[in-house]
Write a structure and sequence with these properties.
The protein has 2 domains: 2-59, no CATH class; 112-275, Rod shape-determining protein MreC, domain 1 (Thrombin, subunit H), CATH 2.40.10. The protein is 39% helix and 26% strand. A hairpin with a 4-residue loop joins β3 (144-146) and β4 (151-158). It has 275 residues and is an alpha+beta fold. The termini are far apart. The strands form 2 sheets. It has a 6-stranded antiparallel β-barrel. Strands 6-7-8-11-10-9 form a 6-stranded antiparallel beta barrel. It contains 4 helices and 12 strands. The radius of gyration is 42 Å and the shape is elongated.
Length: 275
């Protein structure tokens, strides 16, 4: 079929008009004399020969559109699977964090409220944050807030559905601490809103690497919640005290979930707080 088509094209391209006229005249006479099946076969062959290039082009365009559409569908499916993978990974990490909470819950005889961090203070240093639990969930002011790594701070203001947490690095928060090894009590504070400093009696023999925990004094924080590690010990303005830099166990900027301990202040301390 292709050869016949090329022959006809070459015939007209060479401008052999007379030859072409004679050719088609003879072909027409032969077609009139030929049987019907032969004529139908010749016509069908001629039409298929003429339409073949167009059919090839239409088929190629349709195939290209099909490939483009399939490629777009594969891209969308890949994006969806990636998103599902990210969600599954985050779910596993959250499950591991909540599993660790179970061990915390067994240490103290107080109910625990799980909360998610939804905001931070806009200042230069991170001293407060906002969680998505409030009085509707049993959260009240001065309740301890901790994470899997240790103490985070306390509730400074409780609304219906949200609460503000005062972090350990807030200069306005001071708490009683105890060296886990020597059992000597001191206090912890932040003077610059960034780093933690502890003051403990000089006779305690505090060493670098010691762990500080809450002492239980003051009535707000229960005894034994981890705080941080002693990084440096130096003399203070008072000869009877030693000043030390403390590296907190908790990285406050990376907090995602925290746990509020439903512990009200002891009645003596609460009476003083209300004055």
């Amino acid at each position: 079929m292709l050869r016949a088509f090329r022959f006809i094209v070459e015939l007209f391209s060479q401008r052999h008009g007379i030859v072409a006229f004679v050719f088609f005249l003879v072909l027409g006479l032969l077609m009139r004399q030929a049987p019907v099946p032969v004529r139908e076969s010749v016509v069908s062959t001629a039409l298929s020969t003429l339409y073949f290039p167009a059919q090839r082009i239409v088929s190629a365009v349709g195939h290209y559109k099909s490939i483009v559409q399939e490629n777009e569908q594969l891209k969308e499916e890949n994006a969806r699977l990636r998103l599902e993978t990210y969600h599954a990974r985050e779910g596993l990490l959250e499950l591991a964090r909540l599993h660790t909470l179970v061990r915390f819950d067994d240490k103290w005889d107080y109910p625990i409220v799980t909360a998610r961090v939804v905001g931070h203070n806009p200042g230069r240093f991170l001293t407060t944050m906002v969680i998505n639990r409030g009085t509707e969930h049993g959260v009240k002011e001065n309740m301890p807030v901790f994470s899997m790594n240790g103490l985070v701070g306390k509730i400074s203001k409780a609304s219906v559905n949200h609460s503000r947490v005062q972090l350990l690095v807030d200069p306005n928060l001071k708490l009683s601490v105890m060296d886990r090894r020597t059992r000597v009590v001191g206090f912890l504070e932040s003077k610059d809103g960034h780093s933690l400093t502890a003051m403990i009696p000089a006779h305690a023999g505090i060493r670098v690497g010691d762990t500080l925990v809450t002492s239980g004094l003051g009535g707000i924080f229960p005894k034994g919640i981890p705080l941080g590690t002693v990084m440096e010990v130096r003399k203070s303005d008072l000869d009877v005290m030693r000043q030390m830099d403390v590296d907190p166990f908790q990285e406050f900027s990376s907090l995602e979930e925290v746990f509020v301990m439903e512990k009200d202040p002891d009645w003596i301390v609460k009476e003083l707080l209300d004055e």
